[in-house]
Specification:
Layout (H helix, E strand, L loop, with lengths): L3 H19 L16 E2 L6 E2 L7 E5 H6 L15 E4 L9 E4 L15 E5 L2 E2 L13 E8 L13 E7 L7 E9 L3 E13 L2 E12 L4 E2 L4 E2 L2 E12 L5 E15 L4 E2 L7 E2 L7 E16 L4 E19 L9 E21 L2 E26 L7 E25 L4 E21 L14 E24 L2 E12 L2 E2 L10 H4 L1 E2 L2 E14 L4 E22 L6 E25 L2 E16 L1 E6 L2 E6 L11 E12 L5 E11 L2 E2 L4 E2 L8 E2 L5 E2 L2 E11 L5 E8 L7 E5 L2 H4 L3 E4 L4 E9 L1
Parallel strand pairs: 6-9, 13-18
Antiparallel strand pairs: 1-2, 3-8, 4-5, 6-7, 8-9, 10-11, 10-45, 11-12, 12-15, 13-14, 15-16, 16-19, 17-44, 19-20, 20-21, 21-22, 22-23, 23-24, 24-25, 25-26, 26-29, 27-28, 29-30, 30-31, 31-32, 32-35, 33-34, 35-36, 36-41, 37-40, 38-39, 41-42, 42-45, 43-44
């Protein structure tokens, strides 16, 4: 693939935008309106987005609601240089990539290098990183390593989801949505004072759908049912003390997503047999955030959190009535975390210091049904049923601190560091009864593996900001993050050699970034840009290579020596007139393996395939977003707004390539059909609101062009003669009715 046209275009765009920010806008007319200030908590305190020397994409809850964003996965389509996939369908594990940094592994015990936080609580397990978004204040996407204040697994960045807080004044809303494919969603919120010094907020959401994927074997469609709830209690016994309690839970009781067949005549239909494949995911959690002002300048904050998850997911992976690749995944996770921190202010100084501890327990079990998959062709000897059981206990502890010092009225220096210790206890057993007759050939039918690892590392940040004017700030930073090592707990069949490849090492990323944040045209335009370069070593990379004896797939993570990543981001918001709001986003990421010798098991040992120069999976080079909203006043009869939003993503590949003939590295191939070509998705919404903004009626359409596109693909050409793909949502249309009491 040739990315030269993009490279030629990026530098002039960057120069033009920087030049615009420097230009004197002497002819701009004075306006009676301006863009609303965006408040973020990217540095563990409330700040204006324009004052933070970090590349951040931030969305308030109303904007997300108007764009029809209902899950955390959908944030990717609204954010340049962010890609989120669910390799085994909705409700399964989640893979988040920011600027080409992520982990595609769908093993139940692993998690990626992008931190995931909901109301200050870390959701470490990738099993629980698909979150229903409802009653949300904002979502922040922090780009680049966040290894000082967030710490755990943040070489790529962090997603920070913040809920609306309880109010003292009574407020309540109810919203109902109906749409095609039998979609029905109901959401309710009530908030207000319960007693003196105690406010509460309860939010509930439920949705169901008849689904757009059909099984031609029995005429059934993939039906979905989801429920989520959150209760917040905000207690202020004194001016110095506040306590925020958070109780939350969710349930997903649905049909499992069905893979598409790359040869299917109808993109959303296929013959899968008469069996039903279900997914059930239950989550529950609680947290307490206590803030106490020790003095006028120092605040102590404690955040205690627990989150639990239980999941059972059945998967029909071969897209046929046969039992070739059938799986059942079961997982139970328990996560406890405690953070203590001090925030302080002084003369020309802001500082934070703290300690963090997290303990995460994961138990998982995978049952593979390969009853119709022959071990040796034309013999009738099949793989049958196999089973794997694992337990992992992960603990991480850290001490961290950051200091921001004003060198002058214009210059400020930020220095931060974090010492982290990660310990993992791992226990994994795999049993493949069908291999027992072949023990004389060196094929093991059972493996029981127990091991531990421990990593101690330092991460940190050095940044300099320059406030050129009141409306324009430049920053430069060097940040370092690391993600601890781990163990492969996914699908394996080469049991005899498993112990040699079970563990993978930590990864390290040093990021160099230059950015600008500016307010132009009397506050009606906001232009933020960032240039970045990554020194990425020992990157944890997922690969699928066949066992040389059986030819069966091996889902393994190994370390790539180094990756070359650099790119650009541009965020532009503009309100040229009071009735019109326009937002543009552009992201460019060049990502390739600088040095990567892919391990390929062979009958004589392990051989290597040089992947240097290859583009990693899930790393599109260009992404762009657009949002435009125009509002009319109806002369005392309310207001009408028309919104159009769209996203573009260039070609994305879903595999790093495979060895076509088991055990023969020379047969390595990069199947560029195993990906999605560049495409755009457009959405629109027409809404009417009364004068008091109590009642809102809206008509909307998603995927206006009815684009058929893949959100993930898996190689199955050798097995079935076609590839498996997860399908993006077709054109949907519906109506919202919302009433505020």
């Amino acid at each position: 693939m040739n990315y030269l046209p993009y490279n030629k275009a990026i530098l002039p765009v960057a120069i033009m935008l920087l030049g615009l920010s420097q230009a004197s806008i002497t002819h701009a007319a004075q306006q009676a309106f301006a863009l609303e200030e965006i408040i973020v908590t990217a540095q563990k305190r409330e700040q204006s987005l324009q004052d933070v020397g970090i590349a951040i994409s931030a969305f308030d809850g109303e904007t997300l609601e108007a764009m029809g964003v209902t899950t955390s996965n959908e944030i990717a389509a609204k954010t340049p240089n962010l890609n989120i996939v669910s390799p085994v369908g909705e409700g399964g594990v989640v893979s988040v990539f920011i600027r080409g940094v992520g982990l595609n592994d769908f093993a139940l015990n692993n998690t990626g290098p992008v931190g995931f936080y909901v109301d200050d609580s870390s959701i470490g397990s990738s099993n629980g990183q698909l979150t229903t978004l409802f009653d949300i204040a904002r979502v922040e996407v922090l780009k680049g390593p966040q290894g000082t204040l967030f710490g755990r697994n943040t070489t790529g960045g962090a997603l920070n989801i913040v809920s609306n807080k309880p109010t003292e004044e009574f407020e309540a809303t109810i919203k109902s949505t109906i749409a095609n494919y039998g979609y029905l969603k109901t959401e309710g919120v009530v908030s207000g004072a319960l007693f003196d010094s105690l406010n509460g907020r309860l939010a509930l959401v439920a949705n169901q759908s008849d689904g757009y994927m059909e099984n031609l074997s029995n005429g059934d469609s993939v039906e979905k049912q989801n429920f989520a709830g959150r209760l917040l209690l905000d207690y202020h016994p004194s001016d110095d003390l506040s306590v925020l309690f958070n109780l939350h839970g969710s349930r997903n009781d649905s049909d499992s997503d069905l893979y598409g067949n790359s040869n299917d005549e109808d993109f959303y239909k296929g013959s899968y047999g008469d069996e039903e494949f279900r997914i059930n995911v239950d989550t529950r959690g609680a947290s307490a955030k206590v803030s106490y002002d020790l003095s006028d300048t120092i605040t102590l904050t404690s955040i205690t959190a627990y989150d639990g998850l239980e999941k059972r997911q059945q998967e029909e992976a071969d897209m046929s009535p046969l039992h070739l690749l059938g799986f059942e995944y079961n997982a139970a996770t328990h996560t406890f975390s405690q953070e203590l921190r001090l925030n302080g202010v002084g003369d020309h100084l802001q500082w934070i210091a703290g300690a963090y501890h997290l303990s995460e327990s994961i138990n998982w079990n995978t049952v593979s049904d390969n009853s119709d998959l022959e071990i040796i062709e034309n013999t009738g000897i099949t793989l049958g049923l196999s089973n794997s059981v694992g337990h992992q206990q992960l603990t991480t502890s850290a001490l961290f601190g950051q200091l921001e010092f004003d060198l002058s009225e214009q210059w400020a220096l930020t220095v931060g560091g974090r010492y982290s210790k990660v310990d993992v206890d791992f226990d994994y057993e795999v049993d493949i009864p069908a291999f027992q007759p072949f023990s004389a050939l060196g094929i093991a039918s059972n493996v029981a593996f127990v091991d531990t690892l421990s990593n101690e590392e330092f991460s940190g940040k050095l940044a300099l900001t320059y406030a050129h004017t009141e409306d324009r700030m430049f920053y430069g930073s060097v940040t370092r993050g690391f993600k601890g090592g781990g163990f492969n707990g996914g699908l394996i069949s080469d049991l005899a050699n498993y112990s040699a490849t079970a563990e993978y090492q930590p990864e390290f990323l040093t990021a160099y970034e230059l950015g600008m944040k500016s307010s132009l045209l009397d506050g009606t335009m906001r232009l933020n840009t960032a240039l970045f370069y990554y020194d990425y070593d020992d990157a944890q990379v997922y690969n699928n290579n066949s066992d040389p004896v059986t030819g069966l797939p091996q889902n393994m993570v190994q370390n790539a020596e180094s990756l070359q990543i650099y790119g650009l981001e541009v965020d532009l918001s503009w309100q040229p007139v009071e009735a019109l709001f326009v937002q543009l986003g552009l992201g460019y990421t060049h990502s390739e393996f600088d040095s990567f010798d892919l391990n390929v098991p062979s009958s004589t040992g392990v051989s290597g395939v040089d992947l240097s120069g290859e583009t990693p999976q899930n790393s599109p080079s260009v992404s762009a977003t657009l949002l435009a909203n125009y509002e009319w006043s109806l002369d005392g009869k309310g207001s009408l707004s028309l919104q159009l939003d769209g996203s573009y993503q260039s070609e994305i590949l879903y595999s790093n390539g495979i060895v076509l003939t088991a055990g023969e590295p020379s047969s390595y191939s990069r199947n560029e059909e195993l990906g999605q070509a560049g495409h755009s998705i457009w959405n629109s919404r027409l809404a009417w609101s009364d004068n008091q903004q109590q009642l809102e009626l809206a008509l909307w359409v998603k995927n206006l062009g009815d684009k058929a596109y893949a959100t993930y693909m898996a190689e199955q050409t050798d097995l079935n003669g076609y590839d498996a793909l997860l399908r993006g949502t077709p054109r949907t249309f519906g109506m919202d009715v919302k009433y505020a009491f």
